[in-house]
Design a protein that fits this description.
This protein has 228 residues and is α+β, with helices and mostly antiparallel strands. The protein is built from six helices and six strands. The chain folds into two domains: 98 residues, no CATH class; 107 residues, no CATH class. The strands form two sheets. It has a four-stranded antiparallel sheet, with no helix packed on it. Strands 5-6 form a two-stranded antiparallel sheet.
Length: 228
C-alpha cells in the first residue's frame, strides 16, 4: 500500500477484535529553533553571504569594495519573501553601493554609479521573481485545496459507532504532497449487518482517485444487497 490505514472494529466481546494496520510513513520532525532556520534557509544564506562580503572588504589589502556582488542578496531573498519585503530588505544595499562606505580612494564615481545601477536592477528582477513565485504558490495552494476536497468526498470520516460496534480510522498518503491515494476504507450499516472494506487500488496519488472512487461506489451499491 502507498500510505497508512488504521481501521479498528470492536464488538461487545473484547476478545473479538479486527484490526488492520499498515506501517506509517516517517513523519517530519517538529519545527523548533533549528526547524525555523531551515524554513528560512535562503534568508540565512543571504545574510551570511552579505556578512562575508563586508568582512572581506574590511580585511582586504588594500581595502576593496565588493558592493557589486550585493546583487545576489535580493535574488536569494526572493526565494522566500514577497516582492515588497524583497525591495524593502534590499534597499540598504543600494545605499551601500552608492556611497564610498569604506573611504576607498581608488573608487571612481563612474564605478559607484555602475554598481548602484546593478544592485537596483537586481532588486527589480528579484521582486519580479518573488511575485511570480507567489503566483505559482497560490495556484498550488488552490490545487491542494481541491485535492483535499476530493479526499473528503471519497473517504469521508468513518462513523464512531454503528450499533454495538465502535470504529476509528486514520489516513496518510505516502506521496508527500498528496491527500489521497490508492488506499481506501469504508464502513456502512446494512439490513444484514455492518459491512467493512479496506483495500488498496492500483496507482499512487491523484492517479488512483478514479479507481478508488469506482471501488467504493461498487461497495456502496452491492454491500446492502449481499447477505455475506
Amino acid at each position: 500500500m502507498d500510505g497508512r490505514e488504521v481501521v479498528a472494529v470492536t464488538d461487545p466481546d473484547p476478545l473479538d477484535r479486527f484490526v488492520t494496520t499498515v506501517a506509517p510513513r516517517a513523519g517530519r520532525p517538529e519545527a523548533g529553533g533549528e526547524g525555523r532556520l531551515v524554513a528560512h534557509r535562503w534568508t540565512v544564506i543571504a545574510c551570511v553571504y552579505f556578512a562575508l562580503l563586508f568582512v572581506a572588504a574590511l580585511v582586504a589589502t588594500p581595502p576593496e569594495s565588493f558592493s557589486g556582488l550585493y546583487t545576489l542578496v535580493p535574488v536569494l531573498l526572493a526565494l522566500e519573501w514577497s516582492p515588497l519585503i524583497v525591495v524593502l530588505g534590499s534597499l540598504p544595499l543600494v545605499g551601500l553601493a552608492a556611497t564610498n562606505t569604506l573611504g576607498l580612494s581608488h573608487v571612481t564615481a563612474e564605478a559607484t554609479v555602475v554598481r548602484s545601477v546593478g544592485v537596483t536592477v537586481a532588486i527589480a528582477i528579484a521582486a519580479y521573481v518573488a511575485g511570480d513565485r507567489q503566483h505559482h504558490a497560490s495556484a498550488l495552494s488552490h490545487s491542494r485545496a481541491a485535492t483535499l476536497a476530493a479526499h473528503e468526498a471519497i473517504l469521508p470520516v468513518v462513523p464512531r459507532s454503528i450499533g454495538p460496534y465502535r470504529f476509528a480510522s486514520a489516513y496518510r498518503s505516502a506521496a508527500e504532497e498528496a491527500y489521497v491515494g490508492g488506499d481506501f476504507y469504508k464502513v456502512i450499516a446494512t439490513d444484514f449487518g455492518v459491512r467493512l472494506i479496506v483495500g488498496d487500488a492500483r496507482g499512487k496519488g491523484l492517479k488512483a482517485i478514479a479507481m478508488t472512487a469506482a471501488v467504493l461506489g461498487c461497495f456502496r451499491e452491492w454491500a446492502p444487497e449481499t447477505t455475506s
